Every structure is written in C-alpha cells, then in structure tokens.
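Sequence in, structure out. First:
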Amino acid sequence: MKLMGYTPDCSTCNYLFLTLSKIGQFEEAVEVLKGMGKAGCIPDCSTCNYLFLTLSKIGQFEEAVEVLKGMGKAGCIPDCDNYGGLIAELSEARKVDAR
C-alpha cells in the first residue's frame, strides 16, 4: 500500500488483519499489527477483539488471555462478549466444561 502512496488508517489495518487471520495467514496478520505503530496507527478495541478471537480460534488460549488482560492498556474494557467468546472457544477445544 505504501509503495502506491497510500497510508493505511486503523480501519484499513484492522480489516487487513481480520482478512489475513480468516484465511490462515497468521504470520502476515501479526506483521500488520506490528506495522500499525509504524504507520502512526494505535491498535484500538477492534484490533484487540480481532487479535483475541484469532488467537482463541487457533488454540493459542494463553496468548488470548494475555490480550484480554491487556485490553485495558489500549483503553478497552473487556465485556461479556469477550469473556463469552473465550469460554465458547475453550469449551469447543474441550479445555473447560461450560455447562
């Protein structure tokens, strides 16, 4: 994008991160996150949510919990949807019994 003279904003970075994550390009998705700061874009609540859900879906639960814990630093307060998503993924992976 930068080679074409376009400077991405947070929404563009979030969309790119989400799309890369959905198609299993996790290393590239992480590079997008790392590049957000270089582009002058601070990860927001959407970024935290996308990262949290991506990590949960690929079974990186410890990392997902760390993102959840760190969401406050990004100015985001985890809500019942965040915790519910984690419980659902843990239950699906048979890491907890959600009954």
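Second:
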Amino acid sequence: MQAGQLLAAAVVGNLSDKIGRRPPVLAGVLSAGLLSFGYLYAISIHSLWLTVVLSVLMWGIAYQGFNGVFPSLFPELFRTRVRVTGMAIGQNVGTTLAALTPTLFVAVAPPGTANIPLKIGSLTFGICLVAAFAAFTTRETYRMRLNDLGDRNAVPVPKAEYERLRGEVMAGSTKTADAQHLGNQVRS
C-alpha cells in the first residue's frame, strides 16, 4: 500500500502544479470521506478482502489528493517571515484534534451500537466536509512567485509563462540568467 501511496502522492503533487492545489485537495478529502462508509461497512461484516480493497482505495489513492498536495499548499499560505510558525501551529493543532476523534467516535457510537458504519461514517464525512470547505475558501497558491507567497494581493504568473518556466525547470534546460532567476521564484 505504501508504494501506491508514494506513487499517487507524486502524481497528485505533479497534477497540482498543472491545475492548482485546491482541486486535488477537494477531490481527495471528499472521496476519502465517502469511501469511509464502505470501509466501515466492510469492517462491520468482517470481510477482510473488502476491507483491504477499500483501505487501499481510501488511504492509498483517494487520501493522496490531500496528502500529495498538503506539503505545498499549507506552507505556501504564509509569508516567509511567519511560514514555519504558521505551519507548525496549524499542523499541531490539527494533529491534536485528529488524535481526539476516536474518543468522539466512541462517545457517538459505543461498541454494540446499531449502525456504527452509518453513524461514524456520517461523522467522518461531516469532518471531511468542514475540511473541504476550508480548502475551497482558501486562496490558490500555484503559479505564485516565491516572494509573493502569503501575499493576499499577489497576482499569479500568467499561465503561458508559468507553463514555459515549469517546462524548462522540469527539463533542466533553463536558458538565460533571467529565466533561471524567474524559474527559481516560481513554485514548480
């Protein structure tokens, strides 16, 4: 499963450089939330193979829409001066809240409760909807110059110029000092 996660994260990360950071995050969060219903159902009926298949789909593929883009999107929301602090506080508060969800799940549906997959799946999907709303309302960061990251008024690099620079950087064929300097300033 880890090999699939690694490949999916790389593919989605590359895709986010072409279509933006928000679309893969939205697709990943919402599809993983929807798959949680099937995953929890598979556990409830004690189907090992269905559980494994849905686990691979949910964690190995769907979740990578978020996981493959998050390392770029989240730090890019902050100016360089506060990037580490903003990232660290947000990441640690989020990790703490996520660590508390099993307690919430047991409070909502203690062992032996009827329809646990539906109850916990709904709660999980609700949490995913909140995350999707946050991703939807955040500003897009791809095609931004490095020095403009975190600036709410920054203007993205024109798409044609961005694609040209990205192609040069990906090919390792930056031709002039100006293009190289600009290429270093554009997130690729």
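Remark: The mean pLDDT is 89.
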